[in-house]
Fold these 2 entries.
Entry 1:
Amino acid sequence: MERSPHFTADLAHLPTSAHGPRSTTWWGTLGFILIEATAFALAAAAYFYLMGQTETWPPGQSPPDWLWGTVQLVLMLASLWPNLWTDRVAHADDLRRVRIGLVVMSAIGLLTLVVRAFEFGALNCRWDDNAYGSIVWVLLGLHATHLITDVGDTLVLTVLMFTKHVEPRRFTDVTDNCVYWNFVVCAWVPLWALLYVVPRLV
Amino acid sequence: MSARDTSARDSARFIRRDGPALGEAETHARLERTWATPPGLWGWLSSVDHKQVGRRYIVTAFVFFLLAGLLALAMRMQLAGPNQTLLTPDRYNQIFTMHGTTMMFLFAVPVMEAFAIYLVPLMVGTRAIAFPRLNAFSYWVYLAGGVMLWVAFILNVGPDVGWFSYVPLAGPQFGPGKRTDFWAQMVTFTEVAALAVAVEIIVTVLKQRAPGMSLNRIPLFVWGQLVTSSMVVFAMPAVMVSSSMLIMDRLIGTHFFNPAEGGDALLWQHLFWFFGHPEVYIIFLPATGFVSSILPVFARRPIFGYTALVLALFATGFLGFGLWVHHMFVTGLPHLGNSFYTAASMAIAIPSGIQIFCWLATLWDGRPRFATPLLFIIGFIVIFVLGGLSGIMLASVPIDSQVHDTYFVVAHFHYVLIGGAVFPLFGAVYYWFPKFTGRMLSERAGAWNFALFFVGFNLAFFPMHILGLIGMPRRIYSYPAGLGWDDLNLLATAGALILAAGVLVFLGNVWHSLKYGLVAGDNPWGAGTLEWATSSPPPSVNFVHIPVVTGREPLWEEPNGLAAVSGLRVDQRELLLTTVVDAEPDVREPSPMPSIWPLLSAIAVTVLFIGSIFTPWAVVWGSIPLAVGLIGWFWPKSPPDTPEPVVE
Amino acid sequence: MRARAPMALLCIGGLAGCERVRHGVQSALDPAGHQAGRIADLWWLFLAVLAAVYALVLILLLVAAFRPRRRGRVPVGSAFPQEAPTERRLTRVLVAWAVGTTAIILTLTGFSYAVDRDILSLGHRAELTVEITAKQWWWQVKYDDPVPNRSFETANEIRLPVGVPVRVILKAQDVIHSFWVPNLHGKTDLIPGRVNETVIVANREGRFRGQCAEFCGFQHANMALDVVAVPRAEFDAWRESQLAPAVAPSDEQSQEGQRVFLTSACVMCHTIRGTTAASRVGPDLTHIATRPSLAAGTLPYSKGNLAGWIADPQRIKPGSQMPVTGLSADQLQSVLAYLDGLK
Amino acid sequence: MSSPCRRAVSLLLFAAFALAACDREDREPRGAPVGESGPGATVQGTLYAGEPTPPDPRRQEYEGNAYHISQGKQLYVWFNCGTCHANGGGDIGPPLMDDVWIYGDSLENIFATIVQGRPNGMPSFRNKIPETQIWEIAAYVRSMSGQTPTAASPGRNDSLNAKPAEQRTPKAEPKNSNPGGPGVEGRQ
């Protein structure tokens, strides 16, 4: 096609990066969040299925101790505030504030990992005791992997934001990271109920 | 040369956008410089061009198709007569397991994704797939998983418990050794790849459509791939969860499937079929996309019932999740529940019926041209409808209780999968081969290919309906004489050989046409969708100018060339993002350059997955190289992009 | 043309089958029991309706492809001129088509549901209870009786009185198996950790073959069982004979055989009631000589086959749990004499 | 097209498995040929196990073979070895999952122990259990104390979870493995 086509519009004025649903990464993040949410839902379904198989639940063991799981819950819910703040300042492309937010979020992330380690210690069961132990460990482990990946992502972004790699697109990455952290927290609330409350109800 | 040209060229040198200011040749040259994949092995390994990755996917998937086909022939040889001892039971069990696993996980799903990877960006008029590096990564992971499984098989560590790996047979006590662990990890590999591709396709379709391609103008093939990808997102996690549970039961002593410790064997079946049934539609819906793309071109009439077809796609995708239990009718579940799944399973016949009718109507109202692609589509209708109808029989609890796990079911799903997916697939190869390679496949060989394929298929699989009804169960390595199964089995084996001959003709046709095939123009079939608006094979940039879409078959509605938009950069990889519903131009987003990191990350993942077959600690130490790979992948390359040029 | 030739082939294949289904010992289309009968009827109904639908689709396809059309070829690439009326007419037909499909689906679902209820109703009239435990790769069969000492065990064989519904309790010891006697009823899985139940009834005398229908490993292919339907009186007689302990060996060779049996590997796995052999790993051999077949339907019973089976079970059924015992030739002969006497 | 790198990867994987996989995953249900008595017989003759004899040719078929070991595990249950040895923890009979090998820790030693029986209660199973099965049981007994590669040792059973599966049992380095039979350190 050597003949130049008929141009209906010139798009030079369009921006080269945009936040939220206007960018592809936002949709990509959403896609992976859906995938992981499905995995959580299925693991939870397996939990209830196995619960239906046995008359006493948990069988033999006492339920996980309240303390660390609840600490985790409070910590995560509290982390929503700095997270949303970081999201807002990232939308405003405010580098100084974004740096603060990222440092804070990295600290909180590492803290949640420490708490998670204590949670495993307080489960009162081993994965190879019985089906209950197995599913409990898998649920907690599944969420732990999400914690680890997101904390890792946050740390890398923090480093980037203090180097010469600061570009408009980086701020989009920050907002997507915030979206993902919101998901990790939202996933923890029902999981917490499943692991700590349900065994005490039945 | 005069001073005026030189000054013109000088000024032209600073133009970094396409548009009237820059000549066609110059635009083309600059875009080529920007988008071309670097030459040599390194370039080959680091390519992120969706067309190259798509081609690799297609070729690899067909290699696995041939390998699994050879296994099928081995089985047919063993079963050609009663009490044959060509294969030991151990070998036979590995072979039928590898056949099913390879066909489902390494051929059917990947080949459909492969066509999506190649065609969707072209059909929606964009320059690259979304997340091209993730795309390259997914291919390497898929390749590693497939190769791992086959190497294991060659080393006599092939899985031997069926592609469905029912526990406890696949569990730690009755599946000694590593055979089933390789199966479970292969699942992890292929699901990671499939999920990545699903996300890419969804985002490409939603955000990267050419200006004017509003939802009601999306080609039906793209609709099919969109629905399929959404199904992948919700179905594949089920099999990843279940296969992880299986491998944990086998390696670290969890008790998910151990009844003595509160587990349950049926939990596996629920999780597996919650994936396994949608899987069938994940394979079938893209095939309907092939049909809906090919039929109008050879009926020379726009598809009838576009809206009905799109709605049917969504209905199928939705219902597909509601009927996994019909694989478990004979496990002793409550009968009331079962009859619900009967209704749901039969209900899926309604959208399928609507699709069939729309295709027949298109053909009826058109002026058919019987080229090879259309032959395969007609073969598809003849075979698939029969498979669908036997599916209605299987949906009935009483009938299923007789034919479940017999050769009747084998016949049924081969009619549905080969008829419903492989026939359209071959039609699609004949149809898009000119676009992929720039050369036509031989029509004459194509007719032979179709005839042998069609006759061989029906000879091979129709008798199996009867075999099942007269009592022949699935997955038996041998059968006694005198049950009346002998000559029907012989007939089936003969058919299988004819089918194989058809495949050979196909291979010969491809091999010959690659060298000597007629050179195809941009649009040899006179089709109406965007992939035919660019050259064959397409340039690495896909479209020199982003086209503007004015209808469902733009090339039919704009016989004298499509309008285009200008203003995208020619010195950097840039995509045009549009709005989700109306495809209004919205953002010019950069697209990544080639990178070796996806391959390195894939290797890290491979080490982690294979290592974890032998020790759970591999998950810990294997995650370190993986982390390195991912950081290298996402680390911005300095120097940062050249500054945005001023708007001319 | 292209569509017709294969159809002919399909019909040939069909006929070849029909010949065969008239009478088969393992055929779902040769019903000998109430449920199998109802299911077969249902299947023929489905076949009739769906075959009609299929014929309709094929005719539409042929017409659509080959109907005569107005002359004048359309230039490749340009869209076919669409007349709105055609579009509207086709849409109306589409709606009718969808409604028709729905109607057919609903009808068939209704029939299927009715048959399902009817089959289940049989359970209440069961007079006899048989407990089956599936093992890799054979069937342990236990005839229960309220009077404990009137229960007895056998293997790979079920006898039942004609016309009497029998409740079958289904258990699995190792992996999942499936209990399927096509001439009598559809299949039901036997799943470790679960207890399933089905009911079978034979309407006529005869010997039917059942086979494991869920893949269960090495010898899934050779895991069959015999179902023998006999008149009530004959059944009661058989039952009494099975209740009796094993007959004591009469002649010298059989006595030697019993001695070998009780001192060799045999005794590690098998039970012969009335002797010290009481291991429950393998099948109960108390009345092995009365059974129609050996090794879970792999061989018809005969002294010769028994010899071959004991001499080298791994050749006849590779991977089965029966080991090569390495008896000497005359040990083997005497054991054969003994076992063949266990009527 | 993608064949060069497929070849590369497959070579890589070959390197990974080729060594172990083949024999370890082999499933030969017949077991070793029966009837003839190989060097195993010379062991059977003596009261004391493991005096210098050439390794039995049948050894490498059973030792570290996943299928035979799992068969052995099944036979261990079927033949009620547990009534004396429990799940390996020992009861009337000595424990089998510890590091003490009173009559030697080689496959041939264990084979001989089962065939001949031993003082203080271990009966002789000569002619009671076919040799193929004795080899399988012996192979399993070695896995109980982690003497076999974890890739071949059995996983957990579908039964009550008494102890971690053999594949997760740490290897107990054989100490005072005494080919000369029980000395002073004999059976505690």
Note: Chains A and C do not touch (no CB pair under 8 Å).
Entry 2:
Amino acid sequence: MTPWIDVICILAVFLSLTLLATHRIVGMIKIFAVQSFFLGLVPLFLHGGIIAGRDLAVSLVTMVLKAGLVPAVLFWELRHISMRSEVRPILGLGASILCGAVLIAVAFWISLAMKLPGKLESSLVLPCSLATILLGFMTMVTRTRAVTQVLGYMVIENGIFLFALSLFDTMPVPIEMGILLDIFVAVFVMAIVLNHINEEFERTRSTGRRPRWGES
Amino acid sequence: MEKIFRGPWTVPFGECSLRLDPLNLVFLAAIVVLVLSSAIYGTGYLRPYRGKKPLGIHAFFYLVFMAAEKPAVRQAGFIYLIASHCATFFLFLMFFLMAHAAGSMDFDVMARTDFPQAVAALAFLLALAGFGVKAGFLPTHIWLPYAHPAAPAHISALLSGIAIKMGIYGICRVLWIVKTLPGWCGYTLLALGIVSGLMGVLYALGQHELKRLLAYHSIENIGIIAVGLGVGLLGRSHQVPFLAVLGFGGALLHVVNHALFKGLLFLGAGSVIHRTHSGEMDHLGGLAKTMPWTAGFFLAGALSICGLPLFNGFVSEFLIYFGLFTGLRELPPEGVVACSLGILSLALMGALALACFSKVYGIVFLGKPRTDIKTDGTPEGTPFSMLLPMAILAALCLWIGLVPQSVTGLIFGGGTYLAHTDAFAVRLGTVLGPLATVVRMALLFLALILGLVLLRRLFLGTKPLPVRETWSCGFVAVSSRIQYTSASFARMIVELMKNILLFRRRGGQVTGVFPGKAHMKSSVHDASEEMIFRPGLALSNEISKKLGHSRIRYTQLYLMYILLFLVFLLIWKLK
Amino acid sequence: MSLLFNKAVTFLLHWLVIGALSPALFGVIARVKAFFAGKKGPSLLQPYFDLAKLFRKKCVYSSTTTWIFRASPVVSLAVMLILSLMVPFGRFRAPVQFPGDILLVAYLLALGRFFMILAALDTGSSFEGMGASREAFFSCLSELALFMNFITLSLLSESLSLSRMIGADIPMSWKGLDPVLLLVVGSFFIVLLAENCRIPVDDPDTHLELTMIHEVMILDHSGVDLGYLLYASAMKLFLFFAILVSIIIPVRTGHPAVDTGIFLGGVLAMAVLVGIVESIMARLRLNRVRLLLLIAFALAFFSLIVTLWRN
Amino acid sequence: MTLILLIAVPLIAALIVLLPAKNIFRVRLLCAVSLFHASVVASFWWRRPGPELQGYFVLDPLGLLLLSILDLLFLATSFFMIGYFEREHRNNRTFTACILCLLSMTTMVSVSYHLGLMWVAIETTTLFSAPLISFHRNWKSLEATWKYLLVCSVGIALALMGTFFLAIAAHETRTLLLPAILNNAPLLSTSWLKLSVIFLFVGYGCKMGLAPMHSWKPEAYGQATGMVSVLMAGGLTQCSFLALMRVSQICHKTGLGDFYGSILIVAGVLSLVVPAVFLLDEKSLKRSFAFSSVEHVGLLVLGLGMGGVGVFGALFHMINNALAKVVMFLTAGSLAQKYGSSRAPEVRGVIHLYPVTGIFLLVALLAGTGMFPFATFHSELLIINASVISEHYVLAGIIIVCLAVIFMGISRLVLDLVYGKPVEPAPAPRENLFMNITIAAAAALLVGLGLWMPAPLSGLLHEAAALIGA
């Protein structure tokens, strides 16, 4: 089943790059949801087509959380913010893709030296997850809106998730669940903080004092 | 001679032990005398201030700067704070360096170690940097003229007499521990001493405030001490033990002497300020009439600090000169050049110090009062508790000047200890003999003075002599304001050196046939303060302000730093 | 006991020589100057009469002065008397000589100067303050030149004692008319003129000029005090002449009378020389004096460089 | 069961705190819990508990050291809070609950012997500390919270990645339990381990506030109340330092000591240079103390990186750093409460209005910049000594210069605040006894450590240093 995983890996990187180059927030959330959905499929291909109950559970939890709940929270958040589109990214389209390409190259170059201990399904997992992480990072760096930064963070998490799947058998379940829970709570807390910021933002704007908040 | 006390105490570095050896004996002697006299003085001096803030405690922590009103004083204090902070760490770096090379943190073990040249040189430089700040070497001396005047007189005496000597003590200790110093160290120390001494006395000459002037003289005397140490070090590194003992001994004696006469001078200045509430020399004058005792003691201090015969300053300078002249004969050519420079600068320091103290004494104590000095009208006005310490110190100055044999044991003990040589191998007789003759000549001199006074009495008879006004060449409308002031007295020397001294003069131009009122202001500024430290501080402000403005607080930027660092590490470490 | 007695005798002998002969130098100089001016001039003994007159007079003191003012003539004279013990007078070797006596010489001179300056300031007169200031300034420069000469001499004679420096080894150094010694002599001569307030630097005959140095400082002294001061300055001149003569005329025949004669002749010649200089030169402007002293310093410096280079 | 109890009790208390109650009750409960916690931990100095939960929870000397430090911090904070909430009338439900959760989670960090579990605990501390920063609920504190959350989350994500890499490297052992990894050190794959070390370092370094990952610090500490800053600067950063020390343990066993050491030294030097540059023109007391915290964590990693005496120095510095932070941030907190600000133009001449606080400020300056007789001085010297011993002479020079510049920056500000011309503030609240006693006690402890090193402490430090291979 390795080819499927390879395809998903490449798809993940590609989607991250697209996300990096997209300017509309709604579009970015959608791309993220698609990426998460594909990643949710990975556990199903892990053991050569044999789908265990545990695989299915992980796959479902991932899809529900990442492809469903998180985008929903973000959309909900977006509804509270009047502006729907990114005002202006720090880097333009061309430069973003160029930087992204460089980061992908770095990720692959680093992976050259790394020899996986033979039990990983695909040799593309490490470079692709690294690239996804770096691209997510890049998204955070180049975007000026808080929501887009959360999105970037989620892309990083997706990269990590992709890699974590390769360790699926090594890690005991409680830890794994703790990790997933943590990530969810992180996003949740971020959402709450964002909400507070928003309220504060509206309040201060109604009093006429516009706060200096990055660019947003 | 050597005693060690060990305490049952663990500090984070090991245990705590105290020791007594010939070196700290010398410093202890100075400390005990000066602390005692200052304590007595303080009881009288602080009486009018009772109930106010205890400034003295502040002074001990040098925080006196910070409480000051003037921004310049605070800035100097700030510079000192920074410098001494650096100094502390330099010293510890030096200590660790030596400990690392010696394999132990015990001074005794270190002293037995033969350090590699590089370590020795580095330790020496660190010691100079570290202790130099405390001692007030140029160019890190700038805190000193602010700090010492700010404190009450007896504290100033302690600061000047003892606190800065701790820096000298530290250097001595390092010289003792590190036996294998390279040859250039002696030259460095000598050069540092020459520069500090000359600049110190030149700056002093340009001052108008009594205690500030005295503070600059501390820098000069530290310079003389450093010249002595440099000579000693030259002697040690060229294997001329006699020279080494002379240099170190002279320097140590000057440490003691300086504590005595500078203490005396500060106490005297304190009495003047106590009485007149002013330390501005150009406001004072004629105090010898109203405060005869203080004037007398101050004169003793002035004679001592100028290194004139009969007083202690001459003895220590004699030893250092003797060392330098000996160096002319026994050192290699570069040493001869260094010694010649040393002699010349000592001579110049002596002449300038003489000019400076004739100015101080003449302006403050002689002539007529330049302004209405508010005094309470009592004959002396200085309480006995303030006079007694001055008397003690003056007596000690005279004692060492007339009976130097009483301290040579102590001094040369310290000198041989520092020189790491055997006392018997040294031709001490060749210097003790002349010293004895000097003393005999001094006594003869006193006898001659007595004789001439008697002769004069014989000529003049006992009838009271006529007293008139000073003859002012026919000019009748004489006011006391017309007298020479401290600024005008020093003007010729200061103008000759104006490129070094940053001499500034404003106004003073008289124009027209019937000139109106004119105003003139002249002042001397510290070059290292004005040209190095203040601009440096301003520059650092400027830079950090620029950085502060360009400091963008965007999260994106924060994240980018992390990304860059991560990528940097990945590329650096995994290549 | 007899040693002490011997010592006392030599001391007294030295004092006798300097005490008896020094005032005559002023007489000689005055006569030379009179000769150049085409006048007859005072008697050679005139300074002795002046001194005698002054010693018979009472003093007048300013109400501003303190004991310092009274002490300074005494100190000055005492300093000169002590100094005279450390300078060889030709055949008469210095009764006191020890390594490092040059330091005592220099610092005793400084002591005398210190009291002179203080006495001047003590009067509260701005004229005297002016003189004091100049004295302090010029002595800085002349002391520098003096010490530089000492270093050179010390290097040449490998000694620390004045008697050795200008005594025994000098003849050796003169072989082939040593340029170093020439420089030293030149420099020392300028120092001599400055220290003794002779003409290009200072004019001892005027009292009322704003440009004078030493003489203005003793404006307020009178009677016995003035006598002491005059006597002291005569001795100072004699001592400087003695030192210079010892350097210039290194002839040692070993015959007491001849040696003494040569020495006294030398001192006399020096006095004549000073008289000639005073006759043919005008007093320099004040800021040129600085230059003159710096020339002395430069000469001494040059001689030191040459000496160091030879070593 | 004691370790689990230590983790559970504060959690239960946090639940109780969530019930409606008076502010003061919550603070008292917090005091009680931290007292209980501290006394249990104190008993560990005599008898250390055995492994619990199949070896997931073990208290080794490093953990005990951290746990003791944490207890000092929580004790100080909770006592300070008694004074603080006498005047602060905002509801402290979330606040105390979060602090209690923090206590629980930091305890878990110090006792967890499983690297994954440790990661979970550290991540949780981030989440619980975020609401603490935004206690004041104004625009700026929310902004600071946001930045803190974002940067630390990124860091924690990287640390997670590092943990995964470590798991790959340790695939032979099939577990991330520390003893298992250490015992099978030769089996670890070096190249994966290197990758893992880099990611772990950057990740936990973010949490620790090492330059260049420090940027959240001035924001967060500048906005948080003094007590929260204490917990974060003294507690949370040092929890991450424990993680770095665990990595160091592994690296030491696998011969990657130099590899890791060089990274630590680079970051340490950066963490000294950055505050040195930025402190010169800092006008806010809290922000400048935050930069000082960057400097101190820099010193910690420098000591760890240089090894030998440096490790001992770093461990000692952990205690001193925590105590200094107590003095610094609590003073800043009490000042901020009095003046409503901690910036230079608004606050001046403190010594004239509040002599005690003024003196505390000076003490904080001296303690924070490592002046004798405060123990920070000794630990800084130990670290410099370590650089001399390991013959990094240039490094020693850099450290000294940076320390001097930092001292210059902080002292300029503090002296301005203390001695400047006093401003007339709004009706002056009097000094608070609880607050002052807390600060004074911490300062006294710091001086005490500077003058006397108790034998048990020295023993523990040596034992702990031995674990890292010093």
Note: Residues 135 and 181 of chain A are 23 Å apart (CA to CA).
